[in-house]
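Review session, final week

We close the course with one last complete record, chosen because it touches almost every idea we covered. It is Flagellar protein FliL, a protein from Ligilactobacillus ubinensis with 170 residues. Go through it on your own first, then we will talk.
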Amino acid sequence: MARNRENNVDEEQSVKRGSKGKIIILALLFVLLAAGFGVGGTYIANKYFLNKSSEKSTETQATITSNEKLVSVSKFVVNLSGNTSTDNLTYVRLKISCLVADDDAKTSLKKSMPLVRNSVINVLNTKTANDLLNTSNSISTLKNDIKNEINTEYGTTIVKQVYITDLVIQ
């Protein structure tokens, strides 16, 4: 009888150990399957669904040739138009860099920095906060307006492109 009890206890312990082992094996199997599906899904998404051609086209648009130079213009803090009450004034802080053709144009633009600053202030004074924030191409329009105003005031096309390096509207 004592032997029967010992055998029953041994069988119960082996059953408990066996069920714990099965749970551990199932958990490991689940983790491995989840990792496999994650890696496989990422591979398939990268290979078939992501459009890499659009990434390449944006990289090629921002190239600057070795002859072209950037001229940094110090920060502007300007009142925007639209609000005439002193309680609701809207300000813009802007820092730009201008792309010019070569070293001679860079030197010439640096000598004409008051003209450049005046042109930027004239453009910003005509804008409202909504003009700068509401449309998806408003920043592109602002850059183009600044470039055109500088070139008009200068009398020739000296600025090829305007880059906005800092923009805060408050």
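Two points worth writing down before the exam:
The two ends are 90 Å apart (CA to CA).
The chain has six helices and three strands.
Good luck, everyone.
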